[in-house]
Specification:
RmlC_Cupin_sf, globular, PCO/ADO, two-stranded antiparallel ribbon, oxidoreductase activity, acting on single donors with incorporation of molecular oxygen, incorporation of two atoms of oxygen, single chain
Length: 109
Amino acid sequence: MPRDHKTPLIKKIVKQACITYRVLKSSADVADSQSELIPLLTALRAADQKIAPRKSKPCSGPTGLQSPPVTYMHICETLVFSMGVFLLRPGAFIPLHDHPDMNGNLRSC
C-alpha cells in the first residue's frame, strides 16, 4: 500500500504554533502573528485526531461508572506553547477563567 506523504494537519499546526509563539514579545503582537495559525486551526476537525463521541452505555444503578464530564488529551508541549484537546460530554462546560500572561486559541468541533 502506498504511503501518504502529506503532512498531517496537526503537525502543520504544531509547526506554525512554534513559529507564531516563539516570536511574541507582548500580547500586542498576538493578532498579527496569528494570521497563519488561525486558518490551520479553523480547518481542524475532530476526525483529524480520530476523536468521535463515545457510545453511551447504560449505567448499572446509581453507583454505575460514568465517564467524566471533561477529559483532557495532551498533544504536545514545547518551551513556548502547550497544545491539548478538551473533550466535553454533552451539557458539560469549562468555567470561564483567566491565565495571566498567556495567550490561547480555542477551536470548538
